[in-house]
Amino acid sequence: MTASEPLDRVIDYPLVVDNETLQVTALQMGNPNCCVFVDDFDAIDWRRLGPLIENHPQFPERTNVIFIRVRDRGNIEERIWERGVGETESSGTCSCAAVVASVINGKTDRVVDVHAPGGLIPIEWRDDGQVVLTGTASVVYNGEWPE
Fold this sequence. Notes:
By secondary structure, the protein is mainly beta. It has two helices and nine strands.
């Protein structure tokens, strides 16, 4: 993320999107992520804002956009607009970014259950700095490439 002045961390940053100022937390989890805390997913048009933030000039390589609703110190909900993909039901990287953003903003503890449309994702940001995601994997598609 580019800013008018160098920043050590991007927390609660005022990002102007379509004449509206959103407070965002931006961070890297191997790829760029921009987190927006919301009180109600239905009260914000996150599907409209997602691509606007993804392609915002301050994100020259584009960014994942995660909208986060904090339930309590151990539970968050998320809606994801994934860079280059669009609306996504679940993403390990985005969920990890959501937890880190929630912790550094003082909204949750370091062990959080992330509730996404695609399912529940338990995540812990350990004291050694490692972010650990625990979950299952299942095949949703199987195919063969013709010769």
